[in-house]
Write a structure and sequence with these properties.
mainly alpha; two-stranded antiparallel sheet; 2 helices; about 45% helix; FLZ1/2/3; FLZ-type domain-containing protein; zinc-finger
C-alpha cells in the first residue's frame, strides 16, 4: 500500500463548506441536531421564531423601500412622457411627397 493511501480519510478539511442548516441565518448561532429549526422562504434556517420574525420584518421593509423607489421612478418617467407629448403637439409637421434623385 502506498503512503498516500494510508492518510486518505475521504474528507478534505481544507475544502469544508458548512451545510446550510449548521447555523441560524440571522444570529449565526449553531443549530443543534435535536433542536427545532424554523424555516423561512424555502431553505433559510433560524434558531427561533424571534429570529425568523425579525428576518421577515427586514424583508418586508426592504420590499416596501423597493416599491417606493420604483413608484417614484415610474412617476418621473410618466411626467417626462407627458411633457414630451405636450411639446410634440406644438410642433408643425409638413406632409407630402419628397422626391430624391
Amino acid at each position: 500500500m502506498s503512503s498516500a493511501a494510508l492518510y486518505y480519510t475521504g474528507c478534505e478539511d481544507d475544502h469544508y463548506q458548512p451545510h446550510f442548516l449548521d447555523s441560524c441565518f440571522l444570529c449565526h448561532r449553531t443549530l443543534g441536531h435535536n433542536s427545532d429549526i424554523f424555516m423561512y422562504r424555502g431553505n433559510t434556517p433560524f434558531c427561533s421564531q424571534e429570529c425568523r420574525q425579525e428576518q421577515i420584518e427586514i424583508d418586508e421593509a426592504n420590499e416596501r423601500k423597493l416599491k417606493l423607489s420604483s413608484s417614484k421612478k415610474s412617476t418621473s418617467v410618466r411626467k417626462t412622457t407627458d411633457s414630451a407629448k405636450q411639446s410634440d403637439t406644438k410642433k408643425v409637421a409638413r406632409t407630402g411627397t419628397v422626391a430624391v434623385s
